[in-house]
């Protein structure tokens, strides 16, 4: 029972990482109809920016303060990169899915290669507060605090996104702009600014996922963003393109199934089951669990 509980909490932590990446993907595609394969680049940029700041400040400030400052720095850098990409490149390709794919895939490959050239191929170790390396006893299981941090953060992000989209003026403007951009523009509302905000939120969420990935696994690499992006896309498709609740539900299913299958089955069985689940969803319900019928 202790092992099962530990697997469950670890699976929930992994689901939290998947959701943080997938929520930004789902937000950008669902609200802006943009296929953003460069989303993993925001994750990589945010993670390494945070690591650089943390490395420079280690020994100068207390570790807890260093972690917070480094986290904020990573969020700012990742968000700025996302905004600049939307303003300078993506905005010219709205409605052109082929162009979006070519552009964003190229950006992802370029950023990954640049990160590998600058920081090397070896994993770099992330410095976190001592309490994040400790464990908390839950039902007899020794659960690493880093897993709990990811779970709580993902839950708060989900609640924040739902509140933003359903209860705030900008959230309502964004949703209305997706349905009928011309009508919203005719009312004197700057839809372009709202869409830039969506990209900024997506970049911040991806950067947050990259930073927490370092805390979760203890290290970061240039390829980490790409591997997370693959499962994030699976989560988005299973949950339903554009559905934040669907992404949350699918992330839970994918994270837990991976942990259970990899432990109780053969190594790699979890990935196989996730791909099989994706195939079943595409065959039975192509719009995803909570997606809208086209």
TrEMBL record:
Question: How does the protein's chain sit in the membrane according to the entry?
Answer: Multi-pass membrane protein
The yes or no answer to whether the keyword Transcription is present is no
Q: Which residues cross the membrane?
A: 6-27, 34-53, 65-89, 101-119, 148-165, 194-217, 229-256, 263-284
Keyword Glycoprotein annotated? no
Q: Which UniProt keywords apply?
A: Amino-acid transport, Cell membrane, Membrane, Transmembrane, Transmembrane helix, Transport
The organism's superkingdom is given as: Bacteria
**In which compartments does the protein localize?**
Cell membrane
Give the UniProt family note.
Belongs to the binding-protein-dependent transport system permease family. LivHM subfamily.
- Record protein name field: Branched-chain amino acid ABC transporter permease
Question: What organism is recorded for this protein?
Answer: Nocardioides flavus (ex Wang et al. 2016)
């Amino acid at each position: 029972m202790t092992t099962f509980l530990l697997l469950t909490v670890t699976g929930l932590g992994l689901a939290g990482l998947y959701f943080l990446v997938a929520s930004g993907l789902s937000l950008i595609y669902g609200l802006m109809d943009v296929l953003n394969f460069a989303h993993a680049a925001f994750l990589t940029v945010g993670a390494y920016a945070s690591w650089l700041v943390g490395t420079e400040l280690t020994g100068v400030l207390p570790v807890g303060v260093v972690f917070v400052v480094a986290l904020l720095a990573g969020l700012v850098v990742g968000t700025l990169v996302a905004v600049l990409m939307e303003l300078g490149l993506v905005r010219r390709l709205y409605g052109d899915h082929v162009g979006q794919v070519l552009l964003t895939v190229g950006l992802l490959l370029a950023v990954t290669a640049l990160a590998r050239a600058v920081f090397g191929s070896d994993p770099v170790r992330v410095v976190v507060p001592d309490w994040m390396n400790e464990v908390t006893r839950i039902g007899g299981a020794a659960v690493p605090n880093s897993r709990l941090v990811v779970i709580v953060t993902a839950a708060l992000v989900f609640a924040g996104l739902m509140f933003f989209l359903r209860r705030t003026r900008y959230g309502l403007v964004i949703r209305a702009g997706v349905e009928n951009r011309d009508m919203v523009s005719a009312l004197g509302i700057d839809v372009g600014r709202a869409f830039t905000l969506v990209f900024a939120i997506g970049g911040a969420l991806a950067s947050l996922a990259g930073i927490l990935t370092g805390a979760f696994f203890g290290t970061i690499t240039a390829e980490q963003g790409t591997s997370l992006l693959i499962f994030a896309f699976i989560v988005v498709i299973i949950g339903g393109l554009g559905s934040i609740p669907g992404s949350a539900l699918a992330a839970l299913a994918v994270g837990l199934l991976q942990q259970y299958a990899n432990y109780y089955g053969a190594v790699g069985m979890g990935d196989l089951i996730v791909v099989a689940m994706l195939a079943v969803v595409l065959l039975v319900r192509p719009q995803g669990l909570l997606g809208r019928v086209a």
